[in-house]
Design brief:
Number of domains: 2
Number of strands: 18
Largest sheet: 8 strands, mixed
Structural class: alpha+beta
Bound molecules: 4-amino-1,4-dioxobutan-2-aminium adenosine-5'-monophosphate, magnesium ion
CATH class of the largest domain: Alpha Beta
Radius of gyration: 26 Å
Helix content: 25-40%
CATH superfamily of the largest domain: Bira Bifunctional Protein, Domain 2
């Protein structure tokens, strides 16, 4: 039985068997109090010398923090115990006696990263992983319920989707290949067959700096649709984010509480549409607030944080200068110095969680853009072909799963949104 199911009025005076790990242990005059944990929660188990047999008592005396064990006992109401119930133990059997556990939970970041394989047992990490589970489940469900096809793009690729500067190179049987930065180019090919597609894949970025919101390996939820324009696709992203947040609020209340997450702003997120501002307005707002930035510069994490102060829910920035965005974004027909691109920023300082755009669907314009940004059209031959054989207006986006989890869970660093984070200078464990 799971601990969560034993913490229940129906179990009072009933005998239960629980399997888990020792979370805390203390000895108080002839009684040993073991707080047991499993994936579902914690419960206090009382081993009374006068009640259990000699063998169980000896095992309770010897058992150490983080040992695995099986506990049999009777559930009782106990308002002073976590969860309001406790187990009066009748039998205790140690399964894996734990060596001295090297984590108290108060250690520094680097120490905890070195012990990541053990630290992921922490209740905080457990809560975050459960929130991530719900984010992933809701994301998948959103697309599947609305008639999108799930596809499986490759991870080993031959050319850059985003910037060549952040590509991981791989030796592919003596040839150069790369780890995917985004499934987008492949999703674009797939819409000619399936109209509306989505995928969930790892993406890789050889980011030079170690920041609060950059991982070298992250999970990327991406979608692409034929015939969709800018507003159509922004609407999809709003509905998706609002659906994800609603599911987390419904199903992960306990975890949000454990993380002490203030959910007011998450509740605002349920209501769509989200505010939209153009890049021009973003620059004006920043300059008014005393940020040193001029038109044409990219918005970094600091600038985004300042902009989020203006909104109490996610919002969009659109129509960026083409120089700061990728080659595939469609030029704005009303001002060809701009692109029909959009970023969705999460409030409360979090910033970009989604990047999307209308794609350039004209062969000649795209060819010119590829040359302009210094890429080799030869490497993009197949991608250009898509504009040769029945080109179609289309749009798409990518949502960073860990960025989204970081915001929803209210984390101060992205590393905790993934069990085994990869960033510069570190790939352990
Ligand atoms: O804005 P990005 O670079 O856009 C693309 O890759 C597009 N090709 C996606 C598409 O249109 N299909 O990345 C999309 C999202 C970002 O908004 C961010 O949430 C996340 O991916 N992301 C990262 N997350 C963690 N660590 C990193 N280094 C990230 N880089 C991007
Ligand atoms: Mg982006």
């Amino acid at each position: 039985m799971l601990i969560e199911d034993a913490l229940n009025e129906n179990c009072v005076d009933k005998s239960v068997e629980l399997k888990g790990w020792v979370y805390r242990k203390r000895n108080v005059g002839g009684k040993i109090f073991i707080v047991l944990r499993d994936s579902s929660g914690i419960i206090q188990c009382v081993v009374d010398r006068g009640v259990v047999n000699e063998d169980s008592w000896r095992q309770a005396e010897e058992i150490t923090r983080e040992s695995s064990c099986i506990v049999e006992g009777v559930v009782r109401r106990e308002p002073r115990a976590p969860g309001g119930y406790e187990v009066k133990v009748t039998r205790l059997k140690t399964i894996g006696l734990s060596a001295w556990f090297p984590i108290k939970g108060t250690e520094g970041v680097d120490y905890l990263l070195d012990h990541r394989h053990l630290w992921i047992r922490a209740r905080k990490m457990q809560a975050i992983m459960k929130i991530k589970h719900t984010v992933l489940e809701a994301g998948r469900e959103y697309f599947n319920r609305n008639g999108w096809w799930e596809v499986t793009p490759p991870i080993l690729t031959g050319s850059a989707c985003e910037s060549g500067a952040t590509q991981f190179e791989v030796n592919y049987f003596g040839q150069k290949a790369y780890l995917s930065q985004s499934a987008q180019l492949y999703l674009e090919a797939l819409i000619y067959s399936l109209d509306r597609v989505w995928s969930l894949t790892p993406s890789f970025r050889a980011e030079k700096s170690r920041t609060r919101r950059h991982l070298a390996e992250y999970w990327h939820l991406e979608a692409e649709a034929a015939w969709y324009g800018m507003e159509d696709m922004m609407k999809v992203t709003e509905e998706l984010v609002s659906y994800i947040v609603s599911r987390v609020l419904e199903e992960r209340e306990k975890e949000l509480k454990l993380l002490k997450r203030d959910t007011k702003i998450l509740e605002n997120t349920l209501e769509t549409p989200y505010p939209r501002i153009k890049y021009d307005e973003a620059i004006e707002i920043l300059q008014k607030k005393g940020v040193k930035i001029s038109w044409g510069e990219d918005l970094g994490a600091d600038e985004e944080r300042v902009l989020t102060e203006e909104f109490d829910r996610p919002f969009f920035i659109t129509h960026f200068p083409k120089e700061i965005k990728a080659f595939y974004m469609k030029l704005d027909p009303e001002n060809p110095n701009l692109v029909l691109g959009f970023d969705m920023l999460a409030p409360e300082g979090y910033g970009e969680i989604i990047g999307g755009s209308v794609r350039e669907d004209d062969y000649n314009v795209l060819y010119k853009r590829i040359l302009e940004v210094g890429l080799n059209p030869k490497e993009y031959e197949w991608y250009l072909d898509l504009r040769k054989y029945g080109t179609v207006p289309h749009s798409g986006f990518g949502l960073g799963i860990e960025r989204t989890v970081m915001w929803i869970a209210g984390l101060d660093h992205i590393r905790d949104a993934i069990p085994f984070p990869r960033f510069r200078e570190r790939i352990y464990p």
